[in-house]
Design goal:
alpha+beta; Kinesin; 2 domains; 9-stranded mixed β-sheet; 34 helices; binds adenosine-5'-triphosphate; Kinesin motor domain-containing protein
Length: 942
C-alpha cells in the first residue's frame, strides 16, 4: 500500500471565473501555469446568458464567515488506446502547462489552462464552421487536476481539508461527479496500488488516531458504513454494502437498517471499504468495463469515547460522507439495453436531480425571494444528502472528466452544469454540534410551530363548528317557523271547515226534525182516516144487515160452478184483473162519502114510508118490486168502489140484472167513472174487462148465463171485498208514507180530475149513439167481438143469460136489481129534472127506468172512451202481466172525485138533462135527487 503522504499545502484557489467562449479572432493567450493561474476577467458567453451573467459577477473576497462550495476538476488521463490516436503525446517530465497545448492540436478538447481553469475546445468534427474554432475556458475551480495528477495530489487538495474538519468535529461531504468512465470510482476508491481518497482518508484518520494515542488515551472511535442506491424497476432501493442484511429504508436523512461498522484500525477499515466496493453493483458497458450501476455512499462516523466531555461533544456527531455517483451515460455510447438501459435512466435521473438541487440552492442564494425548490424529494440520494444540498453542511465536489474529443459532449455538459456550483456559499457553516443543536432547535421550533398551528387549527375548527352550529340553528329555527306557520294555517282552515260543517249539520238536523214532524202528522192523519173507515165499515155492515134482512140473495155455489165455463171464466178473469186495481184512497173516500149519502137516503126512505121503500124496479121491461132499492143503492155504490179494489171482486153488479134497464145504463156510466178514477192505473186490459163486464148486461140472448155470471160475481164480490178490505187498506196505508209529497198528490189529482172531465164530456157527446151501438151489440153477440175484445164476448153472453134468468125469477134477482138501481141512480145523471119531479122519491123513479138499449149501449161507449183515455195517458197494453206492474194509489183521485161531485160536472149534467128529457127523465130525476143529497153533505177530504 502506498503510504499516505502528508497533504501538501493547498494553493489558494483563484477567484471563480468561467470563460465561456474565446474571442473568435483574437489571439488566444498562452495558458498560464495552474499554480500561478490567476482569474481572468470572464468573457460573456453568447449561448448561456445565465452562466455568463454568473461569470460576470465578480467573486467576492472570501471571508471567514462566508465560504464557497469547493469544486475540483480532475482530468482523467487519456487511455493508451486513445492516446495512440492523439497527435501529441505529452512528454514525460514536462510541465502540465504544455499538455493542453499539445493536445489542443490533437484529439483533446479539454486542457487545463491554469490551476483553476480549463479550456474546452470544440472538436473539429462537431464544429459547424470548421474555419471558426471555438474554445471555452472554465475558470474558478478550487483546483484543476491534470491527467498526470496522482491520487495523493487529489487527496491533499480535496479530501484532506474535509478530514481535518471531520477530525475537528465537522461533517463534510465529498461528491465525485462526472460521466461514465471518467475515473470517479478510481478517484474515490483507487486501487490497491494507487489508493483513492477513501483509503487515504482512513489513513489520515487513523494516523491522527495513532498520534492522539501517544498523547492521550484514545478518546475517539470511528465507524464505517457503506450503502448503495440502485434502481429497481422504476423505483430505487438502498443496499448495505458492508453487511448481508436486507435492504435499508430511507427515513428522512437517515437510513434505517444501515449497518455501521466500527473502525478499530486502519487495516480493518481499508479492508472493509475494499469489501464494500467490491460488493457494489457494477456492469460492463461500452464506455466502461467496470461501470458502476449505483450511487455509492460511504459514511465515517466519529465518536468520542474519552471522558473528556468537550472532545466527545465535538466528535459525537461528525460524519464524513463520500459519495461516488454513477456517471451519466449516453445510450449511443454505452449501448445499454434492457436493464442496463433502465439503470442508465436511473443514473442520469439521479445526476440530474442532484444538479437541480444545487442549481436551486444557487438560485435561492442569488435571490432569496426565489423559493428553495424541493428537488431533493425526487431521489433517495438527494433526500439523504438534503442538508448538504440545502447548504446547511459543507460539501465538496470533484468533477471527473475525460479530455478526449469523443468525450466532448459529456465534458462540456458537466462543466456547464457544475461550474456555477462553485458560487454556492455557505454563510454559516455549522459544525456537527451546531448542526445537531440547530436540528434540535429546528425540531423544537417545528414542534412549537406545529403546536401553534394545532392550536390555531383547533380554534379555527371550534369557530367553524360554532359557525356551523349557528347556521344549523338558524336553519332549524327557520324551518320550525315555517312549520309553525303552516300548522297555524292548517288549523285555521280546519276550524273554519268544522264550523261550516257544524252549521250544515244543524240545518240538516232542523230539516230532519221538520220532516219527522210532517211524517208524524201524516201518520196521525192516516190513523184518523183509518179509524173513520173502520167506523164507516161498521155502520155499513149495520146497514147491510138491515138491508139483507128481507132479501138476502141466495147465491148458490152451483151457479158458480155452472159459470166455470170458458166464457164466464174469461169475463171473470177480466173483472178480476180490473178489481185488482188498488184504489184504496178513492174507495175510502167514496165509502165515507157514500156512507153519509146512504144515511141521508135512508132517512128519506124511511120518511117516505114502506111502500115507497119497496118500489118496484124495471128489469127487461118488467116492473120488479125492489123494496130495498135504496139500501141496495148505497150498498151498490160501496160495492162498485170496492169492486175496483178487492181481489177476486167482480163487477158483475154493473152488468147483472140491470142490463136492460136505465139503471143498468147509469150503472155502466158510473162504473166507467169509477174506472176513470183508476185511469192512472193504466190498465188496458181493465178496459176490456170492464167493457166485457158491462157488455153482457146488454146481451139478451143468454140470460141464463148472465144470471149465473151475475150471481157468480156479485156474491164473491160482496164477500171478498169485506175480507180483503182491511189488508188492502193496511198495505195502502203503509205505502202511503211520508215520501209521497203533497205536491205529487195534488198534481196527480189534477190529472185525474181532468181525465174525469174529459171522459164525462166524451160521454155527453156520444150519448145519442149509445142506443144504436148497444143494439148492434145486443142483436148479435157474436159481432160484438168486432168492436170489443173477443175475450169479453163469452162473459157478456153469460151475463146476459144470467139476467134473463133473473127476469124469470125476480125474487131471486132482487139484489141484482137493487144493485143496478143504485148504480143507475148514482152513475146516470141525465135527467135531474125527472128526479126532481119525483121529489126525491127514488124508488118510484127507479121503477120507471127502462132503457135496456141505452144501457147496453152505454158500456161500449164508456169502454171506448176509457180505452182511448187509457191509451192516451198510459199507453199500456191489455196484457194481464202489465197490470200487475202498474199499480198506483188512487187516493188523490178519489179525493178529487169527492171534491168534484157537487161541482161543475154535475152542472154539466144539469145541462144535459134538458137535452135528454125524452130518453131517461126518471133516471135523471133520480140522479138529480142523489146530487142534491151529495151537495147537501160536505165533502171530506183525505
Ligand atoms: N487518473 C486515472 N489514472 C489512471 N487510470 C484511470 C484514471 N482514472 C480512471 N482510470 C481508469 O479508467 C477506468 C474507468 O475508471 P472508473 O471506473 O473509475 O470510471 P468511473 O467514472 O467510475 O466510471 P463509472 O461511472 O462507469 O463507474 C478504470 O479502469 C480506471 O482504472
Amino acid at each position: 500500500m502506498e503510504p499516505v503522504a502528508a497533504p501538501p499545502e493547498p494553493a489558494s484557489p483563484p477567484p471563480p471565473s468561467t470563460v465561456r467562449r474565446n474571442p473568435p479572432r483574437r489571439a488566444r493567450p498562452p495558458p498560464t501555469p495552474l499554480a500561478s493561474a490567476k482569474p481572468k476577467p470572464s468573457s460573456r458567453s453568447s449561448f448561456l446568458q445565465d452562466e455568463a451573467a454568473a461569470a460576470s459577477i465578480p467573486a467576492p473576497p472570501p471571508s471567514s464567515q462566508e465560504e464557497r462550495l469547493k469544486v475540483f476538476l480532475r482530468i482523467r488521463p487519456v487511455p493508451d488506446r486513445d492516446r495512440c490516436k492523439a497527435v501529441a503525446r505529452p512528454m514525460p517530465g514536462k510541465d502540465l502547462r504544455r499538455k493542453p497545448k499539445q493536445a489542443a492540436g490533437g484529439d483533446l478538447c479539454l486542457v487545463p489552462t491554469g490551476p483553476n481553469s480549463v479550456a474546452l475546445t470544440v472538436p473539429q468534427s462537431k464544429l459547424v464552421d470548421p474555419k471558426r474554432g471555438r474554445t471555452e475556458v472554465f475558470d474558478g475551480f478550487s483546483a484543476v487536476f491534470s491527467p498526470d495528477s496522482t491520487q495523493l495530489d487529489i487527496f491533499v487538495q480535496v479530501m484532506n481539508p474535509l478530514v481535518d474538519d471531520f477530525l475537528g468535529g465537522k461533517s463534510g461531504l465529498l461528491v465525485a461527479m462526472g460521466p461514465t468512465g471518467s475515473g470517479k470510482t478510481h478517484t474515490i476508491f483507487g486501487s490497491p496500488r494507487n489508493p483513492g481518497i477513501l483509503p487515504l482518508a482512513l489513513r489520515q484518520i487513523f494516523k491522527a488516531q495513532d498520534e492522539n494515542k501517544v498523547a492521550s488515551p484514545p478518546a475517539r472511535s470511528f465507524s464505517l458504513s457503506m450503502f448503495e442506491i440502485l434502481s429497481e424497476g422504476k423505483g430505487e432501493r438502498i443496499l448495505d454494502l458492508l453487511s448481508d442484511a436486507a435492504e435499508c429504508v430511507l427515513q428522512q436523512s437517515s437510513i434505517k437498517g444501515l449497518q455501521e461498522v466500527p473502525l478499530s484500525n486502519l487495516a480493518d477499515a481499508e479492508s472493509l471499504a475494499s469489501r464494500g466496493m467490491l460488493k457494489r453493483s457494477t456492469a460492463a458497458t461500452n464506455a466502461n468495463s467496470n461501470s458502476s450501476r449505483s450511487q455509492c455512499i460511504i459514511t465515517i462516523h466519529g465518536v468520542h469515547k474519552s471522558s473528556d466531555a468537550d472532545s466527545e461533544h465535538l466528535l459525537s456527531n461528525a460524519v464524513l460522507t463520500i459519495a461516488d455517483l454513477a456517471g451519466a451515460e449516453r445510450e449511443r455510447k454505452t449501448g445499454n439495453q434492457g436493464s442496463r438501459l433502465l439503470e442508465s435512466n436511473f443514473i442520469n435521473n439521479t445526476s440530474m436531480v442532484f444538479g437541480l438541487c444545487l442549481r436551486s440552492l444557487l438560485e435561492h442564494q442569488k435571490n432569496q425571494k426565489k423559493p428553495l425548490e424541493k428537488h431533493f424529494k425526487n431521489s433517495m440520494l438527494t433526500r439523504y444528502l438534503r442538508d448538504y444540498l440545502e447548504g446547511r453542511k459543507k460539501m465538496t465536489l470533484i468533477l471527473n472528466v475525460k479530455p478526449a474529443n469523443d468525450d466532448y459532449l459529456d465534458t462540456s455538459f458537466l462543466l456547464r452544469q457544475a461550474s456555477p456550483y462553485m458560487k454556492i456559499k455557505y454563510t454559516s457553516l455549522d459544525d456537527s454540534s451546531d448542526l445537531i443543536s440547530q436540528k434540535r432547535s429546528n425540531a423544537s421550533l417545528i414542534c412549537q410551530e406545529n403546536k401553534k398551528k394545532r392550536k390555531v387549527e383547533r380554534k379555527e375548527n371550534i369557530e367553524t363548528d360554532n359557525i356551523a352550529k349557528v347556521s344549523e340553528d338558524d336553519a332549524q329555527y327557520k324551518f320550525l317557523n315555517s312549520e309553525l306557520r303552516r300548522v297555524s294555517r292548517s288549523e285555521a282552515i280546519m276550524t273554519n271547515f268544522a264550523r261550516a260543517l257544524w252549521t250544515v249539520l244543524k240545518q240538516y238536523k232542523h230539516k230532519l226534525l221538520e220532516s219527522e214532524n210532517a211524517a208524524e202528522s201524516m201518520k196521525q192523519l192516516i190513523r184518523d182516516q183509518y179509524i173513520q173507515i173502520v167506523e164507516l165499515k161498521k155502520e155499513l155492515e149495520v146497514l147491510n144487515s138491515c138491508c139483507s134482512c128481507k132479501h138476502i140473495p141466495v147465491i148458490e155455489d152451483t151457479s158458480i160452478d155452472q159459470d166455470d165455463s170458458v166464457s164466464s171464466g174469461q169475463a171473470g178473469q177480466s173483472l178480476v184483473s180490473l178489481s185488482n186495481k188498488p184504489n184504496l184512497g178513492s174507495y175510502d173516500a167514496s165509502v165515507d162519502n157514500f156512507h153519509l149519502v146512504a144515511e141521508e137516503v135512508l132517512k128519506e126512505l124511511k120518511s117516505h114510508g114502506a111502500e115507497n121503500f119497496s118500489a118496484p124496479c124495471s128489469l127487461n121491461g118488467e116492473s120488479v118490486s125492489c123494496d130495498t132499492s135504496s139500501i141496495s143503492f148505497i150498498d151498490e155504490q160501496e160495492q162498485s168502489f170496492r169492486g175496483l179494489k178487492a181481489e177476486k171482486s167482480c163487477c158483475a153488479d154493473a152488468f147483472g140484472p140491470m142490463s136492460h134497464t136505465e139503471e143498468g145504463n147509469t150503472k155502466v156510466e158510473l162504473h166507467a167513472i169509477h174506472k176513470k178514477l183508476d185511469a192512472s192505473e193504466c190498465f188496458t186490459g181493465q178496459t176490456s174487462a170492464h167493457a166485457g163486464g158491462v157488455t153482457p148486461s146488454s146481451s139478451h140472448s143468454d140470460n141464463q148465463s148472465n144470471q149465473s155470471l151475475t150471481e157468480h160475481h156479485m156474491l164473491p164480490c160482496l164477500k171478498t171485498e169485506r175480507v180483503s178490505l182491511s189488508p188492502q187498506f193496511t198495505s195502502c196505508s203503509k205505502k202511503a208514507t211520508i215520501e209521497q209529497s203533497e205536491d205529487e198528490i195534488e198534481e196527480l189529482s189534477k190529472i185525474i180530475l181532468e181525465d174525469i172531465h174529459h171522459d164525462v164530456n166524451i160521454r155527453e157527446v156520444k150519448h145519442p149513439d149509445y142506443l144504436s151501438s148497444s143494439q148492434q151489440v145486443s142483436s148479435d153477440t157474436e159481432d160484438v167481438g168486432s168492436s170489443q175484445s173477443s175475450l169479453e164476448l163469452p162473459g157478456m153472453v153469460a151475463s146476459q143469460k144470467k139476467l134473463e134468468e133473473l127476469d124469470l125469477e125476480p125474487e131471486r134477482c132482487e139484489p141484482g136489481v137493487v144493485n143496478a138501481t143504485v148504480e143507475c141512480a148514482v152513475g146516470h145523471s141525465q135527467a135531474p129534472e125527472q128526479m126532481s119531479d119525483c121529489e126525491g122519491r127514488v124508488p118510484c123513479l127507479l121503477k120507471e127506468i127502462t132503457c135496456p138499449a141505452k144501457a147496453s149501449k152505454a158500456p161500449s161507449k164508456v169502454s171506448e172512451a176509457e180505452e182511448a183515455a187509457d191509451k192516451k195517458k198510459e199507453g199500456f197494453t191489455s196484457s194481464p202481466e202489465d197490470t200487475k206492474k202498474t199499480r198506483r194509489r188512487l187516493q188523490p183521485a178519489a179525493a178529487m172525485l169527492l171534491k168534484e161531485f157537487p161541482g161543475a160536472d154535475f152542472d154539466v149534467d144539469t145541462r144535459r138533462e134538458e137535452r135528454g128529457k125524452s130518453s131517461s127523465s126518471v133516471a135523471a130525476g133520480r140522479s138529480d135527487a142523489l146530487i142534491r143529497v151529495l151537495k147537501a153533505r160536505p165533502v171530506r177530504r183525505v
